[in-house]
Amino acid sequence: MSAALTHPLLTAFRASKPAFGAWLTLPGFLSARTAASASPHLAWVVIDCEHGATPLQPGAAESVHAIAGLGPQAPSTIVRIPATGACADGSAGWQIKYVLDAGARGVLVPMVSTAAQAKSIVAAARFPPRGVRGFGSPFTQLAWGPGVTPAEYLARANDAVLVLVQIETPGGVENLEEILSVDGLDGVFIGPYDLSLSLGFPAPSPDPVPEVEKVIQNILASAHAKGKKCAIYCTSGGQAAKRAKEGFDMINVTSDSGAMAESLARNLAAAAGEAEGQKGFGY
Known about the structure:
Layout: H1 8-15, E1 19-24, H2 29-36, E2 44-48, H3 56-68, E3 76-80, H4 93-101, E4 106-109, H5 115-125, H6 150-160, E5 162-167, H7 170-174, H8 176-180, E6 187-190, H9 192-198, H10 210-225, E7 229-232, H11 237-246, E8 250-255, H12 256-271
Parallel strand pairs: 1-2, 1-8, 2-3, 3-4, 4-5, 5-6, 6-7, 7-8
Helix pairs in contact: 2-3, 3-4, 4-5
């Protein structure tokens, strides 16, 4: 048998080191592969099938394989599924199946508000006896590197695939301790935009208001107290560096669309002899 399945985000989690990533909102495997090649500091990417333009099938699968083709140190591919508030009855399980059968290193589920929802998500992402995930895709192990057989993937995936849920609703905040107690859940991801809006505050621009920041810091402390990882979405390198110093484990730095627009604006302003404008509200 080959060595245990691993990937950069999993390695960072096990070493308790901050892992920086980027959000992929644009469709197309060439765009995804280009973004994944951008920096040696990039440990992971989220392929966003909730608010981004990439469909689960075949879009996310193609991007996962394109990024995996960069080699064993390619950024870990996490896919955010479209389902919001995945039902405790397992009705989002087919989306999780599509993502993991594509070879993604993990799944991110938005707007999770209860422990029952989190348990359903974990079960859908784990093979028996730790879950109810079905086995049968001929493509999954191909995304994990040469020499990985179907039998090896089946035997090792439960320890290699990451399961993350987003805390961004009043229910998620209220039921945080119960959610964090779910066995098999690797961590929680804070969505500052929807968290702010759902609690009745304006969206971050660029930072959350103090009342929301207090909630964010409580989520971070509670996650670590329960032995779970805590991730957060940022929109700049400076903001991400600050969150890393605060102890966040997984920090988004920018998005592909945001970075492209920012670079175009900056360089065009320089060409026209204009001062660079202040970065406005954006995702």
